Amino acid sequence: MATIDSVDIGTMITRDPNRHHGRPHIAGTGISVRRIAGWYILGYSPDEIAEKYSHLNLAQVYAALAYYHANQDQMDAEIAAEETEAERLEKEFLASRSAS
Predict the structure, then answer these.
(1) How many CB atoms lie within 10 A of CB 33?
(2) Strand, coil or helix: 2
(3) Which of 27, 29, 66, 80 could lock 14 by a disulfide, CB 3.0 to 4.6 Å apart?
């Protein structure tokens, strides 16, 4: 009888304080859950995201999306805070250039 290898989906997403500032990412990769969620929010399908990152398989993309959906309020708040900070820094940079 053939054996079937299975993957514990709980091991597909990890956090490491030395990578991505401790934010969740796909285990064994440099791809953060936030990056996958970002593409998803922009309207990309899981298949399109997996094609974009050819070293990821579809299960990894779905694991990231499952993590995002399970923690959506927290992740959306983090995304919004990062966008607000990026806008602030851009305005500060532009103001410093025009003052020169």
Answers:
(1) 23
(2) coil
(3) 27
pTM of the model: 0.80
- The type of residue at 62 is Y
> Nearest-5° angle of CA 22, CA 37, CA 5?
80
Token digits of residue 54: 């050819």
Q: Select the CATH number that applies to the domain covering 9-70 from these four: 3.40.50.720, 3.90.930.1, 1.10.10.10, 3.50.50.60.
A: 1.10.10.10
Q: Which residues, 6+ apart, have CB-to-CB distance to 78 below 8 Å? A: 23, 34
Would you say 24 and 13 are in contact if contact means Cβ atoms under 8 Å apart?
yes
